[in-house]
Design a protein that fits this description.
With 556 residues, the chain is an all-alpha fold. The chain is built from 30 helices and no strands.
């Protein structure tokens, strides 16, 4: 058990040092955001996701002794000064791992702490049960040292998604980088296939690792014995992790499934109706009913309940809630009036300024919107969501550089905000900074891979760079998340059109029109579809669209 615990804990520490290596070089190289993300703290929770970063690597370790990379830090490569720093940042992780291996080798270079074990192995009298606590300690260090060497070598393989490829990537032609990024998600799969199902690759890898481990001073014989002891208690790390996850879930329980939530909400609304009937002159019951109706998206009924509560006792929270209901009802002027009442009663309520700004957006008063957000930021300058709203207002005014600054501020405050990275990408597009936009979209997708709009935006940026295959792949990802997304289908039509694939383009355009006839307005003047305009099928398709539109207008 001692060997297993030492290796398990030692591996977690080494993952932290590996990721710290990446982070500190990135910090020196220009990405100061790593400090705010907590990457310079050596806190494993800052580097890792429990399932992907600890459970999966430990499982692989147990079944095959292969130390897959464990942690993950998100570096803003657009902030790195140059290609040399970019390469150094990728190399720093494996370097830190190898340094750990060299430190573990020191006691073995100073002597032979396992002389008794070595003698019993040579005489054929070795028994695992006879190992002392001290023997197990040294065997654990020997096996951990082998794992560190294996981890460093593994990470240095020039496979996309591994550090080895990250070292050479900045120096490759853009076209090669583009192709590599397209297939980077398959890097670990390639590695798995090579090491598990290709005996020559497995033997070559471990032969090199064994030789290098022996060269730095750790006897591979002791590492192999340490692995044998480790496997005896190999279930222990998984038990610890599962117990940790279970305790975490008990301390932070998830809510009921959505269907049960719906039933509970309806029951609460029914109870609130009884409460206001029994106590019609008590404002708190009307307020509670309004909140429940607001949660159930019954905005008109919610507004009426809040109005009743205000008649009995006007206060800031009730005025604010009424304003939110009016905002959802798109009654923007009335919403602004409600938020004004809120701020008259409680001037330091930053959220009321935010919602007032969003009502201004509904009226397309973007300068007034910015002024409201600046009032909110004066009260709460460290709210990333407000900075996103602030940037979006600048975006609507065509002030794209100011928008990027606001989104950068949001991402700086909350590094986990995928929205900030997505919006920054949008603001870079009109500035024709398509490569930077793609990096932003990739960062957003690292944080939230199921954001359909981010995949569509990335496809649009790739289309501007005439990376048609990449654009189609991005739109396909969007459609795998939302198969009826008319924008993604329409953009695929444009991509096929620019490639001269008229049949596929017309098929996609037909599907897009069926999903949302409004895309016909875009198709009527979109230059991307010019290669199709001489096609009879296109003319027939658009004639059918106009006919349907006219019919809908007459019916209306």
């Amino acid at each position: 058990m001692i060997v297993t615990l030492i290796v398990f804990l030692g591996w977690i520490v080494s993952v932290c040092l590996h990721e710290f290596g990446h982070a500190i070089i990135a910090y020196w190289g220009g990405d100061k955001t790593v400090k705010d993300k907590g990457y310079l703290t050596l806190n494993p929770l800052k580097y890792t996701d429990v399932s992907l970063s600890l459970v999966l690597p430990i499982v692989f370790l147990l079944i095959g002794g292969i130390p897959l990379p464990g942690g993950a830090v998100y570096i803003n490569r657009s902030l790195i000064r140059n290609r040399l720093w970019d390469s150094a940042m990728s190399a720093a992780g494996p370097a830190a791992t190898f340094i750990v291996a060299l430190v573990l080798a020191v006691p073995f270079r100073l002597g032979n702490p396992l002389e008794t074990v070595e003698t019993s192995l040579s005489l054929g009298t070795f028994e695992l049960e006879a190992l002392t606590t001290q023997d197990q300690l040294w065997l654990a260090l020997a096996f951990l040292g082998l794992l560190e060497v294996a981890g460093a070598v593994l990470n240095l393989l020039p496979i996309p998604s591994l550090d080895g490829f990250g070292i050479i990537e900045p120096w490759l032609p853009p076209s090669v980088q583009k192709q590599a990024r397209k297939y980077s998600r398959y890097g670990f799969l390639i590695l798995f296939v090579l090491l598990w199902f290709v005996p020559v690759a497995n033997a070559t890898f471990w032969g090199f690792v064994d030789g290098l481990t022996q060269q730095i001073g750790i006897p591979v014989l002791f590492s192999k014995v340490g692995y044998a002891v480790f496997q005896q208690w190999s279930w222990l790390p998984l038990v610890i992790l599962v117990a940790t996850i279970a305790i975490g879930q008990r301390l932070n329980p998830r809510t009921h499934v959505q269907s049960n939530q719906r039933v509970d909400l309806q029951r609460a609304i029914a109870n609130s109706e009884q409460a206001v009937q029994a106590n019609p002159d008590q404002p708190q019951y009307w307020y509670q009913r309004g909140q429940l109706l607001l949660e159930d998206h019954q905005y008109e009924a919610a507004e009426a309940a809040f109005h009743q509560a205000i008649q009995l006792k006007p206060d800031a929270d009730t005025w604010h809630s009424r304003g939110i209901a009016l905002l959802f009802m798109q009654q923007y002027e009335h919403a602004i009036a409600a938020f004004d009442e809120t701020l008259h009663l409680q001037s330091d309520q930053s959220l009321a300024w935010v919602h007032r700004g969003r009502a201004q957006r509904g009226l397309q008063r973007y300068e007034d919107e910015i002024a409201d957000y600046e009032q909110a930021l004066a009260l709460d300058p460290e709210d990333a969501n407000i900075w996103c709203d602030h940037g979006l207002a600048h975006y609507h005014l065509g002030q794209y550089k100011a928008a990027v600054d606001s989104f950068d501020r949001a991402a700086y405050i909350d590094p986990s905000s995928w929205t900030a990275w997505y919006l920054k990408g949008l603001a870079l597009m009109p500035q024709q900074q398509y490569k930077r936009a793609i990096r932003c979209y990739d960062h957003a997708l690292n944080l939230r891979a199921d954001a359909t709009q981010t995949w569509i935006a990335k496809g649009s940026a790739l289309l501007q760079l005439q990376d048609f295959e990449g654009a189609i792949a991005s739109y396909d990802q969007a459609l795998s998340l939302d198969s009826k997304n008319a924008t993604a289908v329409y953009n695929k039509a444009c991509t096929y059109s620019l490639q001269g694939q008229c049949e596929q383009a017309l098929d996609m355009l037909s599907q897009a029109l069926n999903l949302d006839p409004k895309v016909g307005d875009l198709a009527a003047s979109d230059a991307d579809l010019d290669p199709l305009r001489s096609e009879p099928a296109f003319q027939q398709l658009m004639a059918g669209y106009h006919s349907n539109s006219d019919g809908a207008m007459i019916s209306g």
